[in-house]
Design goal:
The protein is mostly helical. It has 7 helices and 5 strands, in the order E-E-H-H-H-H-H-H-E-E-E-H. Helix content is 46%, strand content 7%.
Length: 232
């Protein structure tokens, strides 16, 4: 199995969850929309609750979240959009995934979890901010990713770092095209879709940006600006 397809924490992405009408023409109650479907505030709220419940279970087992808990809305929304993007990637490249392929990926995740002395549900929630009820979708995501990687150079595993980077660049380009193709729109209350990281990120308020406060210290690394338009 290619290394890229098993890096769960690399794909990716609390506060009030009430959705107000916004000026980006999203349907009322929608957290995000794309040509693949609509993600509602109810859907997102339920999945965030599932993730936070998993975090409590993980804590009893001595497992700590590896991603900022306060960013759970963006992280969960990132996964929900990622599933849509990869479904589109599969359609664009005529990739058809069987239940057996999904199960194979879940077995692989289970093996990784066992190495950490954790259940698969605890592993994906603590390591990747994935609500455990989305395990099947995670398995499908990895199956699509591996199937796409296998179309590159006959599925040959790169033997050096340069080859790995080239493979990752081709995957990222295909992911960018798929995301561009489905016309993702995110409710500004939750942030924006960053095509640089393929994740939902918070965007500083324009009013905050026009503040007359002191400039950041030159020694302070500025937060990279999200890439809000597809570079592909």
């Amino acid at each position: 199995m290619r290394r890229t397809s098993m890096q769960l924490a690399a794909v990716v992405l609390a506060g009030g969850l009430a959705v107000a009408a916004c000026g980006n023409s999203l349907q009322l109650g929608a957290v995000a929309t794309s040509d693949q479907g609509r993600i509602t505030s109810v859907m997102l709220t339920n999945e965030i609750a599932n993730l936070k419940s998993a975090y409590k279970t993980d804590a009893h087992k001595g497992l700590n979240p590896q991603r900022p808990v306060a960013q759970a809305p963006q992280q969960v929304l990132t996964w929900l959009l990622t599933f849509q993007v990869f479904d589109k990637l599969a359609a664009l490249h005529d990739i058809h995934i069987s239940p057996a392929q999904v199960q194979k990926q879940l077995v692989g995740l289970q093996a990784q979890a066992s190495q950490q002395k954790a259940s698969t549900a605890a592993y994906v929630s603590a390591a990747g901010a994935v609500p455990p009820d989305l395990l099947h979708q995670i398995g499908r995501y990895f199956a699509i990713l591996q199937a796409f990687e296998n179309t590159i150079d006959g599925g040959k595993q790169p033997s050096d770092q340069a080859g790995q980077q080239a493979l990752q660049a081709r995957v990222a380009h295909a992911q960018c095209l798929a995301a561009k193709n489905i016309n993702i729109r995110v409710n500004p209350q939750y942030g924006a879709f960053d095509y640089g990281t393929f994740s939902v990120v918070t965007v500083p308020s324009k009013l905050a940006g026009s503040s007359s406060g002191p400039s950041p210290s030159p020694s302070t690394s500025p937060t990279p600006k999200p890439r809000l338009t597809p570079p592909c």
